[in-house]
Write a structure and sequence with these properties.
seven-stranded parallel β-sheet; 36% helix; binds iron/sulfur cluster; alpha/beta
């Protein structure tokens, strides 16, 4: 379990999540045996770690305490988190540090592109913290990063996982104009859980954001995901699927929520693997091109392989 007090960063003993420090502990049930992960101790993991550090990059794999890091980094799949390591929101599920982030690093887009090149990635996923402090929410920085990767690695396909750009008029258009191959924005949970899980966000704004991407450029694949185990009901998950299909979203991911620290939202339930399979079946019947639903599904897990399947599914549909 990740500690609440961060003793490794430059400012010793600064809490990772100051707003959560005085919250009572939220206790989750013990993990079931189907939540098993690979230990991060392989040669591939070490190589990925070296490239990430040499380029001074931040990854969501580390910051979010992702359970798949051993498997992904062994295959040199890392998801870069741009615009620094501190988020201006304070979602109840997320382990990314909260507070006021520093100024943007103008060289970061080139560093990300260089690391993508060194890792030899055919498909790269870029995400970011929320930057509510910036007038455009970081949209131009996203666009610059996409352009830098295109210039350095012309054959690499690019997937972005963005914040919601709430109250940042024109931001989405800037990012979409840079033409990522996949535009992902996660809903995270069902609408009834927003107030306690994702209080700074608005469910229908997020749905509309995804719909706008398709309106702007129908060739961009759209993707979204939710976590289960946060107290949602099955019928609410099915409603989310319908809402996403109304917004013409192509790809749905559903994974188990895992509690990063006792100060975060408790796991209300570990959803068994057969329920995930049930969700996957229903989602396909609702018309998604791709669905990934399993306890350890994360937005960027197997993103490269899934992108190839997504392309194949679109091609098959248009035949
Ligand atoms: S699933 Fe995504 S966030 Fe997790 S380790 Fe893999 S690439 Fe990183």
């Amino acid at each position: 379990m990740v500690v609440v007090v961060d003793t490794v960063s430059a400012t010793p003993l600064r809490p990772r999540h100051p707003e959560k420090v005085n919250r009572p502990d939220a206790l989750s049930p013990p993990k079931p045996d189907w939540i098993r992960v690979r230990a991060p101790n392989t040669r591939g993991y070490a190589d990925t770690h070296k490239i990430v550090k040499e380029n001074g990059l931040v990854t969501v794999c580390e910051e979010a305490g992702c359970p798949n890091i051993g498997e992904c980094w062994d295959k040199k799949h890392a998801t870069f988190m741009i615009m620094r390591d501190t988020c201006t929101r304070a979602c109840a599920f997320c382990n990314v540090k909260t507070g006021m982030p520093g100024a943007l690093d103008a060289l970061e887009p080139e560093h990300v592109a260089e690391a993508t090149f060194k890792l030899g990635l055919a498909h790269i996923v870029i995400t970011s913290v929320d930057r509510d402090d910036l007038p455009d929410g970081g949209a131009e920085h996203f666009a610059k990063t996409i352009r830098a990767i295109r210039a350095r690695c012309p054959t690499t396909t690019i997937e972005i996982l963005t914040p919601d750009f709430l109250r940042k008029d024109g931001a989405l258009e800037i990012v979409a104009a840079a033409k990522p191959d996949v535009f992902n924005h996660n809903l995270e949970t069902v609408p009834s859980r927003y107030l306690s899980v994702r209080p700074g966000a608005r469910y229908f704004h997020s749905i509309r954001l995804l719909q706008r991407v398709k309106e702007i450029d129908p060739t961009i694949f759209t993707k979204s995901g939710i976590m289960v185990g946060l107290g949602e009901e099955r019928h609410e998950v099915l409603q989310v699927m319908d809402d996403l299909r109304s917004a013409d979203v192509d790809f749905l991911t559903i994974g188990q929520y895992l509690q990063p620290t006792r100060k975060h939202h408790a796991v209300m339930r570990y959803v068994p693997p057969d329920e995930f399979q049930g969700y996957e079946k229903v989602a396909y019947t609702k018309g998604f091109l791709m669905v990934s639903a399993s306890p350890l599904t994360r937005s960027s897990h197997h993103a490269g392989d899934d992108f190839a399947k997504l392309q194949a599914a679109r091609a098959a549909k248009s035949r």
